[in-house]
Design a protein that fits this description.
The structure is a homodimer. Chain A is α/β, with parallel strands linked by helices. Chain A contains six helices and eleven strands. The first copy, chain A, folds into two domains: 56 residues, no CATH class; 231 residues, Protocatechuate 3,4-Dioxygenase, subunit A (Sandwich). In chain A, the strands form three sheets. Chain A has a five-stranded mixed β-sheet, with no helix packed on it. In chain A, strands 1, 4, 10 and 11 form a four-stranded mixed β-sheet that branches. The C terminus of chain A is likely disordered.
Chain lengths: 306, 306
């Protein structure tokens, strides 16, 4: 008979899980149990605090709907999603590839296919051009690469957040599109500069972020999902230089190499008469470890509340 | 601008939470973030695995009802609840107190007050006597201590699990009662020897336990909640020696000092003609860190499925 105490309980739990047939599940659960137990010992967690944690996690789960994923939001605000992206980038078999950033909850699988140069926004106020090249890590252009792009409008709202549509209706596609690079790997399209916005603050995760006195904002950004046969799919986002929340993104998506500049008069822009943004994306060769879409499951698409 | 990578993301997250006004919340979240990030780095968690985790946690949250607390069950099966109990015991200001064990999901606040010697089971097959003393850590009896007891019947079911009642009806009280020790701290009551039972296996936690090839059983046990003014409330359970799952309790509640023996002919038993169990409970003086009821919130009461 074992005399369980606050130290031996950890080995007792891991020993009981040692029968797990799947070696990866076994490894993950062992490590998780060790780290969770170390956390509780380190802070000397009390029963009252434990119960608050149970209540919080239950509320997070119950806040989830087909249009809102509060657990992904929790993962995002703890820097955990960003960490998963960094680990994914590190597993690339080549260096020099563009960094991953959060896919976020507003991705839609069936965005419209558009010809190069088209504008993805139905009612733009001030159009800008985004252009550049999709290449391998050696700078060689990749023809016919798929470039999916989505973003908020100039007021910080995604199409999924528009309140004009009827209740329960599938929101009309806007501020998103899918392009193909040309024979040299070039892409170009028109859009608007998006506005930053707060994460959903009306649930348990918003309450936690408020209790931490964090502002809850994401800086202005444009999402990209880029793929080509034989290459690692790239989920990333470009962040607008000058945004006041660039240094304090609530979900830790910003990294220096993903900040974009809007230029008023770039002689290389393929479409004249608009401000322009140039960004080249470098794809690593395909790896065997899955898509890298942190949050990409279509069932995870979130609709932010008011 | 920060160049976030798989190491710097942790400090970035903690730095953003450093504005938390409540020092305890700040401490807990910092430690949690450090340990969760260490876990992800240690196992090199992939985006696909992360999404499986998100889906699992969402299912756990959505399985919770006013009669079922799947997150407590998850905590229990990871040894986390037991650890919280051990940490609680360690914070006692005195040594020699009886160890805490899991309160579990079947506690009910309003169990009937009964006179000493009464039987808590409405239709017993084979009655046994439980008796002993509630004392301080020096063995001095505590008069008028409250002794709440609850357990399964001889077939392994709590009153809350009985299927005979009408749907939605509040299940009738059975196999539970509340007693007061006499002037010398003695208690005695009649009950039956309970049977072990599996945790609820029809939810996501049951699926995890199955994937780990664990049997999912708890050994036979009787719950106690013992209190007296000026003393630390004691939540514990006594486990039946000889139960086949004593060494492999799915929720890690068993510890050597909490195993009870059923004696056929104990000359000290206060009620003759029945097998008997003697157990003395020692309470430490009250501390300032809350109740120690891991799972005791009445809203957490769980009703196990089929």
């Amino acid at each position: 008979m074992r005399a369980i105490d606050h130290n031996t309980i950890t080995d007792a739990a891991i020993e009981q899980m040692s029968t797990t047939p799947d070696p990866r599940l076994k490894q993950i659960m062992e490590s998780l149990v060790r780290h969770l137990h170390s956390f509780a010992r380190e802070v000397d967690l009390t029963p009252d605090e434990w119960l608050k944690g149970i209540t919080f996690l239950t509320e997070v789960g119950q806040k989830c709907t087909p249009f809102r994923q509060e657990f992904i939001l929790l993962s995002d605000t703890l820097g955990f999603s960003s960490l998963i992206n960094q680990l994914h980038d590190r597993r690339a078999t080549e260096t020099g590839n563009t960094k991953t950033s959060l896919l976020g909850p507003f991705y839609r699988q069936d965005s419209p296919e558009l010809p190069l140069g088209e504008c993805i926004v139905k009612t733009p106020r001030q159009q800008v051009v985004i252009y550049g090249k999709v290449t391998d890590v050696n700078g060689k252009g990749i023809p016919k690469a798929s470039v999916e792009v989505w973003q908020t409008d100039e007021d910080g709202a995604y199409d999924l957040q528009k309140e004009s549509q009827a209740p329960g209706a599938v929101p009309e596609m806007d501020m998103r599109g899918r392009f193909r690079t040309d024979a040299n790997g070039n892409y170009y399209l028109r859009t608007v500069v998006p506005l930053g916005y707060p994460i959903p603050m009306d649930g348990p995760v918003g309450a936690l972020v408020t209790a931490q006195k964090r502002h809850g904002f994401r800086p202005s950004h444009i999402h990209f999902l880029i793929g080509a046969p034989g290459y690692r799919e790239l989920v990333t986002a470009l962040y607008t230089r000058g945004d006041e929340h660039l240094e304090s993104d609530t979900v830790f998506g910003v990294t220096d190499s993903l900040v974009m500049d809007v230029k008023q008069d770039d002689p290389n822009s393929p479409m004249k008469g608009y401000p322009s943004i140039r960004y080249d994306f470098a794809l690593a060769l395909a790896a065997k470890d899955g898509s890298g879409r942190v949050g990409a499951d279509p069932s995870q698409i979130t609709k932010v509340g008011a």
